[in-house]
Amino acid sequence: xxxxxxxxxxxxxxxxxxxxxxxxxxxxxxxxxxxxxxxxxxxxxxxxxxxxxxxxxxxxxxxxxxxxxxxxxxxxxxxxxxxxxxxxxxxxxxxxxxxxxxxxxx
Length: 106
Hints:
There is one protein chain. By secondary structure, the chain is mostly helical. The chain has one domain (4-102). The protein has four helices and no strands. Helix 1 (4-21) packs across helix 3 and helix 2 packs antiparallel against helix 3 (62-83). 8% of the residues are buried.
């Protein structure tokens, strides 16, 4: 879960994107599609950790993977903030449902 300062940063990023690109349906769609791009970069980094590309060998570190995963989290939070007025509340509720479903008590 993101803390209050992190959500403030996300809101700042959304405000910046809104001022640069607007918040049309097309812009929101592109913000959502950006998640696919970021997820692909995670996969590419993990392939690089495993050395699965014979041409490149081991080309990434776990820190590279962590950086890419953080990009996914930020991109998802930006997209969520772009479509909902209370993204933090929604994430909290969803996480609670997932925890309950899996039997995790917090």
